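Example for tutorial group B:
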């Protein structure tokens, strides 16, 4: 059993309406687990800080400042620590955020 929370957990949370981190804590404390049921679809879209210039490595992270940050509507979740004016350093993983969307079907998500 893998007891660590996975990077993809927001997709499961969107289709089950269960907070998986809270659920892990509840079960670890001896509580009962909720039984998830999914009747919809969700997908995650990563956002990376990458160079669009054709240099040696076109996907190499580049330091930059974020511009406009717009929060989406309901049934869309944004997982990111980036804020307006944030300086994105080139030293770490280039993932700066994830957009998680939800719909009744995969096509609508």
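The residue assignment follows.
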């Amino acid at each position: 059993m893998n007891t660590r929370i996975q990077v993809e957990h927001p997709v499961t949370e969107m289709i089950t309406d269960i907070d998986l981190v809270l659920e892990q804590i509840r079960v670890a404390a001896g509580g009962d687990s909720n039984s998830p049921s999914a009747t919809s679809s969700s997908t995650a879209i990563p956002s990376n800080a990458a160079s669009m210039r054709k240099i040696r490595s076109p996907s190499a992270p580049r330091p930059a400042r974020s511009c406009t940050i717009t929060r989406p509507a309901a049934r869309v979740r944004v997982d990111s620590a980036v804020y307006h004016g944030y300086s994105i350093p080139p030293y770490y993983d280039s993932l700066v955020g994830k957009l998680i969307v939800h719909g009744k079907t995969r096509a609508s998500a």
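Residues 9-103 form a domain with the D-amino Acid Aminotransferase; Chain A, domain 1 fold (CATH 3.30.470.20). Compare this with the pattern of hydrophobic and polar residues in the output above.
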